[in-house]
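User: Assemble these into one structure.

Assistant: Restating your components, then the assembled model:
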Amino acid sequence: MSESLVILLLVVAVALAFDFTNGFHDTGNAMATSISTGALAPRTAVMLSAVLNLVGAFLSIEVALTVTNAVVEIQDSSGAPRSEYLTDGGSPLLLIVLAGLVGGIAWNLLTWLLGLPSSSSHALFGGLIGAAIAGLGWGGVNWLGNGKELDGVLGKVVLPALMSPVIAALVAALGTWMIYRITRGVAERFTERGFRWGQITTASLVSLAHGTNDAQKTMGVITLALLASGHWSDTASVPFWVKACCAIAIAAGTWLGGWRIIRTLGKGLVEIESPQGLAAESSSAAIILASSHLGMALSTTHVATGSILGTGLGRPGAQVRWRVAGRMLVAWVVTLPAAAAVGAATWYLADLLGGGLGAVAVTLLLVLAAAGMWWRAHHEPVGAHNVNDDWHEPSRPVPAAA
Amino acid sequence: MENFGFAFTAGWQVVLIGVLLGAGLPAVFAVGIRSLAYAGGGSATTSDPGGSEGPAAARPLGTVLAGVCFLVVVVGIVLGLTFILASGFGKELDFGSGIPTLTDKS
């Protein structure tokens, strides 16, 4: 087995692992509200979301292979890998992608352990940026884009991240306020059942949109690796096995639950009632669909969190836990540079050890780190059994299970 | 720095669609629920004057109004669903002619 084949196999495995973390990191975006209001039982909710993510991922018939172009310069505009990185069976490019993925996963796991909903796409982009800076220098990063559309780190990452949570919060606050105003005095037997179905429907839309949007990113990355190593040559399509594996990985991740993040979103930030759940998910669904239609790169996480915060602002008498919101904000700001730092360090280490050995070493380190965080998480487990327990501030983000 | 211009252009459209569909549709839904309660009459709404006792006469107008509201909401959801499915198949929804139609992605 040649060295570049070893690296390729590691890239594929690590990319699928990233897709898996993407799944459980984002379950809460769609389902936290339905779970905390009791519209769906926790297990049912994550199962529904997982199925919809699976369906959504398979629906991505037309996958953009230019996913990395938003932030780094390792592909040309057709999606083909740049020829200067294709020596040694594509190893230079594969190492950058691998290091980037390691950075993304490391940050996703850490924020999950802390119960913080941070953006998986920012983690992936951050990792890639760091690896590109380390491997190619500052010029390897697409900072400002081409000037013809929203592009580059500024246009695809920074600006949408500043705007989308604010827009989401505004829309959700307005929606919440109107719903409460309109249904004031209506007997509970009408509101409860109605809003329950409203929530489930809108949350399902968000799950489906998530499947089509997010699984694509991993499909694009794996296909890029196959192109770079010469195992695939068509820049207009994705091999079916890649699509199937990515769809299954993100659905399996979603099915696992990501309970720590669900708890923060559904109980920690705002105490949610069902009308608020409906307002939050409608706002999220509308904004996710509108911005992908208009070419604004979106982070489902930022939109969903903004919406949930907005429902706390829009309901008279509701309380927003600003300490929790503050922690999230810090996590959002830190996500990109932190993932970039891990990505860069990973690339240097892999480069130092050289090609195949380096790739194996950083993958092993990632596995160790993941196992460590998993083990740490089991000291204070959060699961379907305690996801809706009362929230206590200012204790640690995740209270110990009874 | 063209990015700021593009972000602004896309941003206000997102706000507009967000307010219309993301906040507007739930409000219509809420009106539907209120209408349904109104149709049930009497004890369904506490704002009913006189705090009527027992089941009051059904009000068909409420049922009709609720039906219209829920229909609007369903159309909105179907539109959203079509959008997700269409973009997966390399098509997009075009609102240029006033009626949403499916066209090939440019």
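Chain A has one domain: 3-371.
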